[in-house]
Every structure is written in C-alpha cells, then in structure tokens.
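Data deposition worksheet. Section B asks for the primary sequence of the deposited chain exactly as it was used as input, without tags or linkers unless they were present during the calculation. Section C holds the resulting structure in token form. Section D is free text for depositor observations; keep each observation to a single sentence. Incomplete worksheets are returned to the depositor.
Section A, Depositor: J.P.
Section B:
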Amino acid sequence: MYRRSAAAAVLLAAALTLTACSSGGDDADADAKAKPPASSAAPDPADTPAPSAPAADAKPTGPVLPDAKLTPKTGSFTAEEKKYLSGRVPEKMDPAAVLQTGQEACQRVARTAKRDKDAATGAVITGEIAGAKDAITHLCPDQKPILAAAEKGFPEGPRQSPAAGNYRALTQATNCTWEAKGKDGAVLASGPETPPKAGDKITATIPAGTAEFNSSGCYAWIPA
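Section C:
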C-alpha cells in the first residue's frame, strides 16, 4: 500500500522506506519497507545501475552478443540465465555484468515482498524496481505471484478505457483521489467520499462505460 511519487507530499511516521541491502543484519538487508508513497527517501543504489551495465529493463539498441557467445569468464550460465541475457548484452560487455542487474532486481523484489507483498507489487507495477518482469520470469520464478498480481494492476495517472470493477490503491497516503469519466467527459464516479485517514484502505469502483480513469496520489491500483 505504498509508493514513492514525486507528486506526493505526505510522510507517515509509521512508514518504512525502500532501501538497498547491506551487510549489516536483517534491517540493513531490507531493500524496501512499508512506506507511504509521499516520502522522499534517499536514493536507492539499486535504482541506478553501474555505468558499465545497461539498465535492468533496457535492451541495447546497438549490436548485441549472439546467444552462442553468452558465456561467463568462468563457470557457465543456466538455461534460464541465457534466456534472460538473450538480446540484452551489448558487444564487448561481460554478460555476467548484465546478469547481475537482473539478479539485483530479483533481490529487491524478494526483500520487499518479505516485508510487504503490496509494496513489492506496487514497485513492479510502477517500474520502481526496474526490469522486474523479465528478471522474475527467468531468474527468480519464486516471485511469480508478485508478478501475477502486478500484471492485473496499473499505476496512478490517466488510464483509458479501464476494465469496470472494484480496485484498491496500494498507498496509505491521505491525498489519494480518483475520478472516472464517460466518453462525453461527464464524471461517472469519484472518490474517496470522505477524506481518508492515515492507514485507511482506499478503494475505487470503476463503472461500466468509463472512458478514462484518472487518479493522483494513489501510487498504483490492483483489483480489490
């Protein structure tokens, strides 16, 4: 129920921030903890890939190593690791460096999900954990329930022709608002009906025939 959004401005005392892992115990090892999306947390080193490797969710636009040359300097890659690396490793780059970005994405998802599955789901939906989809698919299939939940959701902001139904915001921020409009621009539904208190569950009912669903301060939505 959580987000880190530039548009949000509320910081809850009970919230926990997404952090990178370190060698200092369980709390230090936590990558992401429950937090309101309104927080302005210190940058997570895992959000910024090493200069020598492409971003976890990006594939190079230039020449890439053919699959036959996807071999590490020592040891060997598993079949799934090779699938992950296929088409992702620029020429003259060590495939192991690219693999590491995917492994780090897996580690972030796992650490976040250990403390709060909604936080992990929201981070995958919004792209806060870059490259999570491909990483989970090939490198950490034990996190596929998180990916499955994320694939049913969507981030805040305008969404055209959304599926009708009930949705839950993955946030504890009190500034979450939403609105559903028809094709003529008329407001079909909006909320919350009353200002939410810190920690309240925020839900939205999208009526049939909604042409645009827009939300702000809500981080991400999943079916309720």
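Section D:
Residues 11 and 39 are 5 Å apart (CA to CA).
The helical segments are 25-29, 79-85, 95-115, 117-126, 132-138, 144-151.
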